[in-house]
TrEMBL record:
Gene label: DDOST
Membrane topology note: Single-pass type I membrane protein
Chain segments annotated as transmembrane: 338-359
Key words, A-Z: Endoplasmic reticulum, Membrane, Transmembrane, Transmembrane helix
Role played: Subunit of the oligosaccharyl transferase (OST) complex that catalyzes the initial transfer of a defined glycan (Glc(3)Man(9)GlcNAc(2) in eukaryotes) from the lipid carrier dolichol-pyrophosphate to an asparagine residue within an Asn-X-Ser/Thr consensus motif in nascent polypeptide chains, the first step in protein N-glycosylation. N-glycosylation occurs cotranslationally and the complex associates with the Sec61 complex at the channel-forming translocon complex that mediates protein translocation across the endoplasmic reticulum (ER). All subunits are required for a maximal enzyme activity.
Localization, UniProt: Endoplasmic reticulum membrane
Designated name of the protein: Dolichyl-diphosphooligosaccharide--protein glycosyltransferase 48 kDa subunit
InterPro entries in UniProt: DDOST_48_kDa_subunit, OST48_MD, OST48_N
A GO cellular-component term linked to this record: oligosaccharyltransferase complex
Family: Belongs to the DDOST 48 kDa subunit family.
Annotated ranges, domain OST48 middle: 225-362
Length: 368
């Protein structure tokens, strides 16, 4: 996309060594709060601004001049510090929408390690180190426990905020370089397979498509509801009505909106708590379901709240009223009340017979 100077962008990629001008941590944080998307790549020469930005998003970078080290999973071309890591694609997040479709070749990584804030449920561990990796100063002996160890070492992390803003942090700037895109890769261990090209390019493209919302974006199209057999929604439903609800959910694909093919979308019929929860079934280009309203009146909502890994949060709510039956709509006789009907009628018949006997019975006189 060609942009003139001063044009706004909702997808900045931060590959610069330092901020300048009006760009600072507060500005980028406000940009994310406004729904913007950011791709950040760091290195072992990371400065305080990127560390502060990571902290704002639940990511903690290791100290400057540190690097991820793995004495078992380093490339054959490593100069000797074992910081040129060969990351196994099995350590990628199990989310094809974010990391693309597998299989990928091994990934080259050289940079700083990260850890995720355990209290932040929105952080995504996109690519982790192996169980033998750790983050420390490569030219110093280990005198204290490393900042990140094993699977807790994040090489690439992500975040999708509650406003659907997306952020991706890479601890390696070299990860996005042409040299890493086109390099052959082979672990230094004896007998390791040699790959003619890394999986960096495929992963970088998948990450960029996701973070800049070219993938994993959902929206709600048409929503309709009505009684079964009718076409228009009534002013108010009646308890125990049989209703049909349908919703069109679309996914952004190659710049076009196409029907979403998810088969795990649920509908809830909610007053305060859900009275009905059921799966929607695909019906052409829409998802629909028929169900019977509960025998409870009040103000309800047809609610679809779809939150899946890699996709934007989808929410749709439609408010309707459910009234009780009118007097003319009740059954004349309720089958379950037949014993009570029998008891009432038997009481009337018994009273009638008793009255007849009592009124026509004449007591005998003493003379008789």
């Amino acid at each position: 996309t060609v942009r003139l100077p001063g044009d706004a962008s909702h997808h900045p990629a931060r590959f610069v060594p330092d901020f300048g001008g009006n760009i600072n941590v507060e500005t980028i944080a406000a940009f994310i709060d406004g729904g913007g998307n950011v791709l950040v790549a760091a290195s072992s020469d990371i400065g305080d601004p990127l560390r502060e930005l990571g902290s704002e998003c639940g990511i903690e970078f290791d100290e400057e001049k540190t690097a991820v080290i793995d004495h078992h999973n380093y490339d054959i071309s490593d100069p000797g510090q074992h910081t040129l890591i060969v990351a196994d694609p099995e350590n990628l997040l199990k989310a094809p929408t974010i990391v693309g479709k597998r299989p990928l070749n091994p990934i080259l990584f050289r940079g700083v390690g990260m850890v995720a804030d355990p209290d932040n449920p929105l952080v995504l561990d996109i690519l982790t180190g192996s169980s033998t990796s750790y983050s420390f100063f490569p030219d110093k002996p280990i005198t204290q426990y490393p900042h990140a160890v094993g699977k807790n070492t994040l090489l690439i992390a992500g975040l999708q905020a509650r406003n659907n803003a997306r952020v991706v942090f890479s601890g390696s700037l070299d990860f996005f370089s042409d040299a890493f895109f086109t390099s052959a890769v082979q672990k230094a261990a004896a007998g390791s397979q040699r790959y003619p090209q890394t999986g960096n390019y495929e992963l970088a493209m998948a990450l960029s498509r996701w973070v800049f919302k070219e993938e994993g974006v959902l929206r709600v199209g048409e929503v309709s509801h009505h009684r079964v057999g009718e076409k228009l929604p009534p002013s108010a439903y009646t308890v125990t009505d049989l209703v049909e609800y349908s919703i069109v959910i679309e996914k952004l694909s190659d710049g076009k909106w196409v029907p979403f093919d998810g088969d795990d979308i649920q509908l809830e019929f909610v007053r305060i708590d859900p009275f009905v929860r059921t799966f929607l079934k695909k019906n052409g280009g829409k998802s629909s379901v028929q169900f019977k309203l509960p025998d409870v009146y009040g103000v309800f909502q047809f609610k679809v709240d779809y939150n899946r890994l890699g996709y934007t949060h989808l929410y749709s709510s439609t408010q309707v009223s459910v009234r009780p039956l009118q007097h003319t709509q009740y059954e004349r006789f309720i089958p379950s009340a037949y014993p009570y009907y029998a008891g009432a009628f038997s009481m009337m018949v018994g009273l009638f017979l008793f009255s007849v006997v009592f009124l026509h019975m004449k007591e005998k006189e003493k003379s008789d």
